[in-house]
Amino acid sequence: MTSIVTVAENASGFEIFPTDIEIFKRQLDSLNDIAFDAIKIGLLPSIEIADLTLRFIQQHQDISVILDPVLVFKENKDEEMSLMTAKMLEFLPYVTVITPNLREAEMLAGLTITTVSDMKAAATVLSALGSRHMVIKGGSRLDKHFARDLYADGVVSREFVKPIVARNNNGAGCTFASAVASNLAHGASVLTAVKQSKEFVYQAILNSNDYGVFQLLP
């Protein structure tokens, strides 16, 4: 666990508390004798925690590593985002898949993205920087009716498109990256893992219940 997050009662914001660095070191050390098939990396709240995480995955290059580079949230200052963006670039050669949203892809690639062509250009840059596989998540910024994600591996690219469902979509990006990790751990190819994960998240949102509403089963 890299941090503890608290949400305000009125859900107007949240606070991020990084895990004490010594505790985080002990958490990583506790994994030395545990066999696992995939690693999913999400929010890394400090450079110190990011450094330790990078060293850890450098020692586990025999398994799939999925990086969801959580760079953009309002609590983050511009200077902190710049430092963390530079650190995330160091991860690229050591991760199997990176799953940035549009804003994160813009920061990592140093480009403005407003079209699918721009997404492909960003993917080319990230590939040159060492990324093996990536999924740039378009969300609703490119098209208010369809969520367009771009998969690329430096050779081929493929779009995955689903209708936007305006409900219960908080955490969709994190869930998607976790699903990719789970599919890879079960032996799926990266492209298949991405396809299955996109469908899984879409179905989860589509079939979700409204927050705070309980259904009585017969």
TrEMBL record:
<keyword id="KW-0418">Kinase</keyword>
<dbReference type="InterPro" id="IPR004399">
    <property type="entry name" value="HMP/HMP-P_kinase_dom"/>
</dbReference>
<feature type="domain" description="Pyridoxamine kinase/Phosphomethylpyrimidine kinase">
    <location>
        <begin position="4"/>
        <end position="212"/>
    </location>
</feature>
<dbReference type="GO" id="GO:0016301">
    <property type="term" value="F:kinase activity"/>
</dbReference>
<keyword id="KW-0808">Transferase</keyword>
<dbReference type="Pfam" id="PF08543">
    <property type="entry name" value="Phos_pyr_kin"/>
</dbReference>
<keyword id="KW-0460">Magnesium</keyword>
<dbReference type="InterPro" id="IPR013749">
    <property type="entry name" value="PM/HMP-P_kinase-1"/>
</dbReference>
<keyword id="KW-0479">Metal-binding</keyword>
<keyword id="KW-0547">Nucleotide-binding</keyword>
<comment type="similarity">
    <text>Belongs to the ThiD family.</text>
</comment>
<keyword id="KW-0067">ATP-binding</keyword>
<protein>
    <recommendedName>
        <fullName>pyridoxal kinase</fullName>
        <ecNumber>2.7.1.35</ecNumber>
    </recommendedName>
</protein>
<dbReference type="InterPro" id="IPR029056">
    <property type="entry name" value="Ribokinase-like"/>
</dbReference>
